[in-house]
Amino acid sequence: MAMSNYTDSALTLEELVCKVYDVGGVKFGNYKLKSGIFSPVYLDLRVIVSYPDLMTNVAEFLWEAAKKEGKSFTCVCGVPYTALPLATCIAAKHDLPMLIRRKEAKEYGTKKVIEGKFCAGDVCLVVEDVVTSGSSVMETVDALRAEGLVVNDAVVLLDREQGGQDMLYHEKINLHSVCTMTEVLEILRMLGKLDAETVSRVRDFIKENKFSIPQLIKETHGDAHHLQLKTQVMSYSERITHCSHPLTRKLLSIMDKKKTNLCLSADLTSSQAILSIVDKVGGNVCMVKTHVDIVEDFSQDFVQKLVQLSEKHDFMIFEDRKFGDIGHTVQQQYKGGMYKIADWADIVTTHVVPGSGVVRGLKEVGLSRQRGCVLVAEMSSTGTLAKGDYSKAAVRIAHENKDFVIGFICQSNLTKDPDLIHMTPGVRLDVSGDALGQQYISPSSAIRDLHTDIIIVGRGILTADNPVAMAEQYQESGYHAYQELLT
Ligand SMILES: O=c1ccn([C@@H]2O[C@H](COP(=O)(O)O)[C@@H](O)[C@H]2O)c(=O)[nH]1
User: Which of 48-57, 213-222, 267-276, 386-395 shows the lowest mean pLDDT across its residues?
Assistant: First the structure.
């Protein structure tokens, strides 16, 4: 008999997390892990099997997360043991053949490792309850691949954010998660189930117990494989060969040629001041970002001169317009008014708060002009609401509009798709922040820890005594961090 009577057919993520917590799937305290270390959080998602309605809901969330990017699968396989019933629910509900991986091959009879009917080339989705390092998912992936199945995707209920996603990406697996540990903490805190001290203890634990990719690969595959890691982080020039969007290719080729991942945020209010600094540091940057509506003496002559400088120094022009209205309105804002942004800006930013119509509206104007757009998926400011499901929706919209969307404004790595460039503002050598909620991280940390592609720097350069020398320092610091990732 079921231990609790959940009758919900469709829960919100908050409700799901709350129910998993209420049945004891997530516990907070001081738990000794298999590794011997003590953890302030303990996950026991096996308990879900005792709550059939909750289990069906979890399975639906998993399926939705896996299908978000429009992928299709010919079969599904759970990582033994907790995810087996979850995979079964998905298979039964969506009429999808299921495979079972044996933990040990049978010593008799067929000696099969993978049970169920399949053909080489079938595309299998791997299902897991929790990902920490990604090694359990990899055991199942390796077994499936050994039988000729194609495995590119895995879906997990909870990503502990300790390095598993990067590890799996290294193994050419896209990990889709229903929620992350950060989201669980935020939801439980919001619902009053956790105090601030516990939240910060768990956050610190996760931060301090992150695995590096080399460490994970060594653990999963041993030393020989570890040595191969060096070749796995893509250089800009390698990445060009994996990209289809012409603007992404152009940007990566500028970054490669000029040895820079720096974007200057030219947030000055006089056109002369902007042109002057851009001419001085144009050689150090791959992009110049503008807020054209703060320029007091704006004229078309100003933007023409900016375009000339972009040709002289070989950088792209990026108008940080942050559109946020319905498709029909943003079209007028993009091509018309006094700024006529579509005439001169290679790239523009848009919020996704109106839904995908905003992107479709901009695309109708920009596509024929070979322009591109960047989605504001996350923000650098304190208390930002652009997080969690909102950011995931931005990723989905980007994937659905890859002919026009070339990346994200973000504070974390959101997708491993080589076409989509991650651009991170809130970067400064002095990381103390400003009085209005801006938060900073260092250039090297943005590249190395957030795995971003481009650092966006404004006041760090503009207010320096010697902005040119400072731009060189940011260029050097960002590019050096990128080179370190390659070696
Ligand atoms: O999340 C975001 C999105 C955009 N910005 C913009 O980047 C620059 C940052 O300027 P700094 O002087 O380096 O703080 C600015 O134009 C913002 O509008 C951001 O900071 N955060």
Answer: 213-222
Question: Cα 154–359–417 angle (5° rounding)?
Answer: 30
Q: Number of structural domains, the chain?
A: 2
Ligand 1 mutation target, pool 262, 438, 454, 474, most atoms within 8 A of CB: 438
| Owner of token pair 């999963």 | 220
Between the CA of residue 263 and those of 82, 134, 319, 324, what are the distances in Å?
A: 46, 34, 12, 23
User: How many helices (DSSP H) and strands (DSSP E) are in the chain?
Assistant: 19, 16
Q: At what angle do helices 52-67 and 13-22 cross, to 10 degrees?
A: 140
> How far is Cα 66 from Cα 70, in angstroms, rounded to an integer?
8
Among the three residues 197, 229, 261, which one is the final residue of a domain in this structure? 229
Residue 128 phi, psi (nearest 5): -140, 155
Model confidence, pTM: 0.60
- In terms of domains, do 116 and 205 share one? yes
Closest by CA to 403, choosing from 246, 294, 208, is 246
CATH assignment of the domain containing 404:
3.20.20.70
- In this predicted model, what pLDDT tens digit does every residue of 172-202 receive, in sequence order? 899 999 999 999 999 999 999 999 999 999 9
- The SS3 of residue 347 is strand
Examine the domain organization and report whether 219 and 241 are in the same domain. Answer: no
Q: Please state, in angstroms and rounded to a whole number, the distance separating the CA atoms of residues 120 and 123.
A: 9
Q: Which atom of ligand 1 is nearest to the CA of 457?
A: 13
Q: Please tell me whether residues 208 and 298 are part of one structural domain.
A: no
In this structure, the residues whose C-beta lies within 6 A of any atom of ligand 1 are 265, 267, 291, 320, 379-380, 409, 425-426, 428, 438, 456-460
Residue that is last in its domain, among 180, 200, 229: 229
Range of the domain at 473: 236-486
Residue 460 lies in a domain: yes
Nearest to 163 by CA among 228, 218, 225: 218
pLDDT (mean) for 198-223? 74
pLDDT in tens, 401-459: 999 999 999 998 888 888 899 999 999 999 888 899 999 999 999 998 888 999 999 99
CATH number of the domain bearing residue 100: 3.40.50.2020
